[in-house]
Amino acid sequence: MDLHQIEIFCTLIKLRSFSKAADALYLTQPTVSGHMKNLETELGVKLLDRLGKRVVPTEEGEVLFRHGEKLLALRDQARQEIEQLSGRVSGTLKIGGSTIPGAYIIPELIGAFKKNYPLITVQLLIEDTALVADAVLTGGLCLGVVGAKIDDPRLESHAFLKDELVLAVPGGHPWAKKKSVSLEALKKEPFILREEGSGTRRIMEDRFRKEGFSTGDLSVVAEVGSSDAVRQAVKAGLGVSILSVRALQDDVQAGRLATLRIAGITLDRNFSIILLRGRSRTPLCKAFLDFIRAQKQARTF
Question: For the whole prediction, is pTM greater than 0.85?
Answer without folding.
Answer: no
